[in-house]
């Protein structure tokens, strides 16, 4: 009995010694893992340092001190929905001619498919968020016209006419843009048409306003070197900078 009791005590002591060592090792390892996680998080940029700003590459945001430039503040982008002309000749009102259906008030419209585009505005009156008509010269044209009927297109933000873009109004209608706009292609106003810009208009292409038509610019109309601006009809322009 004495031998059995001594053997049992020896086994218990060995078990207690092993358990104590294992617990100490786990605690040490746990401390190391915690320290490693913190170090790697800071090295990998998972946690921003004090005073730094957050940036995002997701749609609708850009990291910018000034819109379009690099900086430290977070800027909310345009809420508009892209809607691109699918290419060729057709009417504005046909949903299948567009990537996102017929344009509406929140649409950022682009007519520049890479082939010849001729789009006829045929909806009477409509509103969109922005309009990009054409782009870099590529051997094709991107034209928006009113088909000779009184059409009224309201653009909440900017109108941008690219180098191969043509805006032709000859049906006693109106195109109005609510922000600074630009033309590097051709704008033709015929037959009592009106182009109205709430803001500045920079012309690097050709603007022809024939007799009986109106162009209104609330800000400054700047005619770049080599550009053409012809005003044969009536016009209301707040400022003209050469």
Task: Summarize the structure in words.
With 242 residues, this protein is an alpha/beta fold. It folds into two domains: 47 residues; 161 residues. It is built from one helix and 21 strands. The longest helix has 42 residues.
Write the layout of secondary structure elements.
Layout: H1 2-43, E1 61-63, E2 74-76, E3 81-84, E4 88-91, E5 107-111, E6 117-120, E7 125-128, E8 130-133, E9 142-145, E10 152-155, E11 159-161, E12 165-169, E13 174-177, E14 181-183, E15 186-189, E16 194-197, E17 201-203, E18 206-209, E19 214-223, E20 228-231, E21 236-241
Parallel strand pairs: 3-5, 4-6, 5-8, 6-9, 7-10, 8-11, 9-12, 10-13, 11-14, 12-15, 13-16, 14-17, 15-18, 16-19, 17-19, 18-20, 19-21
Antiparallel strand pairs: 1-2
Short note summarizing the structure:
The chain is α/β, with parallel strands linked by helices. It has one helix at 2-43; strands at 61-63, 74-76, 81-84, 88-91, 107-111, 117-120, 125-128, 130-133, 142-145, 152-155, 159-161, 165-169, 174-177, 181-183, 186-189, 194-197, 201-203, 206-209, 214-223, 228-231, 236-241. The model is unreliable at 22-77 (pLDDT under 50).
Return the domain count: 2
Give the structural class.
alpha/beta
Query: Which word captures the global form?
Result: globular
Mean pLDDT: 78
Tags for this model:
242 residues, alpha/beta, 7-stranded parallel β-sheet, 1 helix
């Amino acid at each position: 009995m004495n031998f059995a009791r001594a053997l049992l005590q020896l086994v218990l002591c060995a078990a207690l010694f092993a358990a104590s060592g294992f617990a100490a090792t786990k605690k040490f390892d746990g401390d190391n893992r915690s320290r490693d996680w913190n170090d790697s998080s800071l090295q990998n940029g998972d946690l921003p340092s004090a005073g730094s700003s957050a940036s995002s590459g997701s749609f609708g945001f850009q990291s910018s001190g000034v819109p379009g430039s690099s900086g430290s503040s977070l800027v909310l982008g345009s809420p508009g929905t892209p809607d691109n002309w699918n290419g060729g000749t057709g009417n504005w009102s046909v949903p299948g001619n567009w990537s996102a259906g017929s344009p509406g008030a929140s649409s950022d419209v682009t007519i520049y498919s890479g082939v010849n585009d001729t789009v006829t505005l045929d909806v009477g009156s409509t509103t969109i968020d922005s309009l990009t008509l054409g782009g870099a010269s590529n051997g094709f044209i991107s034209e928006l016209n009113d088909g000779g009927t009184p059409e009224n297109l309201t653009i909440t933000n900017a109108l941008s006419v690219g180098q191969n873009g043509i805006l032709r109004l000859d049906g006693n209608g109106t195109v109005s843009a609510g922000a600074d706009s630009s033309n590097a292609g051709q704008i033709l106003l015929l037959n009592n048409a009106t182009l109205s810009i709430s803001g500045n208009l920079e012309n690097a292409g050709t603007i022809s306003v024939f007799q009986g038509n109106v162009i209104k610019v609330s800000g400054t109309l700047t005619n770049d070197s080599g550009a053409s601006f012809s005003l044969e009809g009536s016009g209301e322009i707040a400022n003209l900078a050469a």
